[in-house]
Inverse folding.
């Protein structure tokens, strides 16, 4: 198997592992599960795992760890932004 492919797959496995932990947590708290969000984080984990595999000479342990930790870091950054809705009033004539 190609080393980039194996690094990407290991990153995906790390992301899947992290996602399963998140799913179990959401189920225990009886929260709604957003499947599209889950799939996006796994796809990002595949990309992160491939890039880390390329940068760090295709070490499989780092690809696996980066898939797990990378999506966790990105999710933390995403949640740190306080998103507020802004409504614009129509222009008065």
């Amino acid at each position: 198997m190609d080393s980039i492919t194996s690094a990407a797959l290991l990153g995906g496995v790390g992301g899947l592992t992290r996602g399963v932990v998140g799913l179990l947590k959401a189920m225990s708290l009886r929260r709604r599960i957003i499947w599209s969000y889950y799939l996006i984080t796994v796809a990002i984990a595949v990309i992160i795992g491939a890039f880390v595999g390329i940068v760090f000479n295709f070490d499989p342990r780092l690809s696996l760890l980066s898939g797990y930790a990378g999506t966790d870091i990105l999710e933390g950054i995403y949640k740190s932004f306080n998103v507020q809705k802004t409504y614009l009033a129509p222009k008065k004539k």
Notes: Residues 3-79 form one domain. Helices lie at 3-28, 35-55, 60-80. The mean pLDDT is 81. DSSP finds three helices and no strands in the chain.
